[in-house]
Write a structure and sequence with these properties.
The protein has 200 residues and is mainly alpha-helical.
């Protein structure tokens, strides 16, 4: 494996293990084993776990930016682009049910650890917030665009949390339908925020 490819593979495996096992519970040995390299080779690329965490967060930031750009290109209008964000809960439902939201779970864990990278990890939420705010501004809702963006972020995080807790696919589907209906009302001129449905 070439050095650049090895480092890329290490970050890829670390990203996956941090999500599935948690940052604190994942060891260098876990990652080296997943990559299939010796610990000596591992240390050649990353001397400290925090260095690897920084690379994982940078990778997630880059992937999120690419996804948002793709939605910008493929979405016919701002409402369709926002629906792409809402539909993440369906597209990633199986993983979310098992491990929660990758952005929320890492941010929460780092906050509990009082880790210096917590603020950096939370910047992924800011990417979504700014992008959603821009879509609502394009819908003519400049005065409350940020509040609407935060509403969707908060609600999607709540659905992800309860999805992991209850493992109820029907609940997630109902919530996605409800959020899309709320969006349609907002596009039509504004409506009260609906109450979330209860999981069964």
């Amino acid at each position: 494996m070439q050095d650049g490819k090895t480092a890329e593979r290490i970050v890829d495996c670390a990203d996956d293990l941090f999500y599935r096992q948690g940052f604190e519970a994942t060891s260098f040995a876990d990652i080296a084993g997943a990559v299939g390299i010796s610990r000596g080779n591992f240390y050649y690329h990353f001397k400290a776990k925090d260095d690897l965490l920084e690379a994982v967060i940078a990778r997630r930031m880059a992937n999120t930016s690419v996804m948002l750009r793709d939605w910008e290109i493929t979405g016919e209008d701002p409402a369709e682009r926002i629906r792409s964000f809402i539909q993440i809960l369906i597209r990633n439902r199986d993983k979310i049910e098992q491990y929660g939201c990758p952005v929320g779970s890492l941010s929460t864990e780092l906050a509990k650890l009082n880790h210096t990278a917590q603020e950096e990890a939370a910047r992924i939420f800011t990417l979504f917030r700014v992008w959603l705010r821009r879509q609502f501004e394009k819908l003519g809702r400049a005065s409350d665009a940020d509040a609407l963006a935060m509403h969707l972020l908060v609600r999607s995080q709540g659905v992800a949390t309860l999805s992991a807790a209850y493992r109820d696919p029907a609940f997630v589907e109902r919530e996605v339908v409800s959020m899309c209906a709320w969006l349609a009302d907002e596009v039509a001129g504004g409506a009260a925020v609906p109450s979330p449905t209860k999981p069964h």
